[in-house]
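Q: What does the assembly look like in three dimensions?
Context provided by user:
Components: two
Sequences:
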Amino acid sequence: MTSATLTANANSARRGNPLARRLLIAGAWLVFALFLLLPLLVVLSEAFKQGVGTFFTAILEPDAISALKLTLTAVAIAVPLNLVFGVSAAWCVSKYEFTGKSLLVTLIDLPFSVSPVIAGLIYVLLFGAQGYFGQWLSDHDIQIVFAIPGIVLATIFVTVPFVARELIPLMQEQGTQEEEAARLLGANGWQMFWHVTLPNIKWGLIYGVVLCTARAMGEFGAVSVVSGHIRGLTNTLPLHVEILYNEYNHVAAFSVASLLLALALIILLLKQWSEARLSRLKSNADEE
Amino acid sequence: MSIEVRNVSKHFNAFRALNNINLDINSGELVALLGPSGCGKTTLLRIIAGLETPDAGNIVFHGEDVSGHDVRDRNVGFVFQHYALFRHMTVFDNVAFGLRMKPKKERPSEKVIAEKVHELLNMVQLDWLADRYPEQLSGGQRQRIALARALAVQPKILLLDEPFGALDAKVRKELRRWLARLHEEIHLTSVFVTHDQEEAMEVADRIVVMNKGVIEQIGAPGEVYEQPASDFVYHFLGDSNRLHLGDDQHILFRPHEVSLSRSELDDHRLAEVRDIRPLGAITRITLKIKDQDELIEAEVVKDHDSLSGLVRGESLFFKPRPSVVNGQR
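A: Here is the predicted structure of the complete assembly.
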């Protein structure tokens, strides 16, 4: 849900009974504090329980650094690929009529409905040693499962919908007339995309990319299945947190978790910023 | 530049949008494609522009078959009903767009572009809005900017798709007169689509009346009004009354084609006044006659003799004077 619709809901609620309004707001804050704020505080307090020194030791430890690198690598590959895929898919769906269009839209949503663990298992089934392509892959000395390619693939799978889902309604709403106008004025395909389409979808695109990034960094289930949990090699940050936690190394686990948290907060700020721009754009369009 | 439309047909799935259309538009002419919604007029315009591909037939510009040419090579100016201005660009950048998109060799310098843009903005009398964004403009202003943008690349043909359709009545009237004057100055071959017969009559040199994917009639405004080729054209170009004569016979006549009198005259029929509507220069009187449920509308000048002191419920005598003889249709 975008902030624009939230604001609209708030506006209609404002006309209601003031007591009910206060109760609802208080309830929302209570839930927010109990289920979101409190855990965050616990994570931070646990991380710093034995002082700043221990915190930094935990996050500067080689395995942690390697997990951070792997997470960022997966993000750096998955997000640009999804950016390209998302823009292309949204373009096809919103600007052209073709058979199988609704099937494509449904398929884009598939990763939302399939459990990430199953997504991971699919890749093991396909590319694992006993999988369909396992023999061929090992003959050619290519390792996908329990290696970085598998982690990247799993990350791509779970983050596919984010960019496309954000762009499709936006591009459908904007229609094709500005693109037609650009072509009539002599712009070629690339000029049209760069000067007309891209500026119009810019904020929606940034918003989608931010969501995609957040999910790519935090993904646990699918990556866990394909990773093999090889320390220093195929551990992403969320997996590393789990391992530390299972080893009863709570302080280290929470320290690394707070690193992940810091990344998430940066993403959240970016999201807030792009969302604000997007809703401002939408309200301008509504005024027309 | 002249436009020839040769045997053009177009289907959208099972819907036949255009059926074997043939049309010649002379160089410098201002032609209206007039018809109800769904008659295919916009599809025809978009096919001329190259935005749609016909299933069959050809488009010829000044003797050259452009059917295979891409939109960007046809050099047509196109104005959309909803303006289609680039929302993230200023008015200036919108108008400059076409010039800036030219290949490097043909592209003028930014200084020349700026001069050209200001010249066009002056022409549409909106130079003072150069730094604004489309969302800050009124509908009439946006449409004039859209026109300036289309003219910036010096098109050989100007196509306008319901250019005044989204504007309110007063602005629409001003803008269409302004367009007619502009056309007199620049004499660009122009085609515009409209469903408003008054607009077509007021602006166009020739009117192409379309219905259900075919052309019903092509002619000057006076011609299609005075000598309609079909019932459809007759009804579409203005209001009409039907007067039954008995024996399944009737005559059709326009509201102004009527003689009214307070006193009984030869061949005049008695009617009861149901409504009186002063509409400015003319007044419309709704009449009810005895043997017919359909009401008759008569329009006369507002200071007509028969109107003085007339109130509802009174009697009037009227006689149709149709200029078009189409009694038995």
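Follow-up: The interface with chain B takes residues 177-178, 180-188, 191, 195-196, 199-200, 284-285, 287-288 of chain A (CB under 8 Å).
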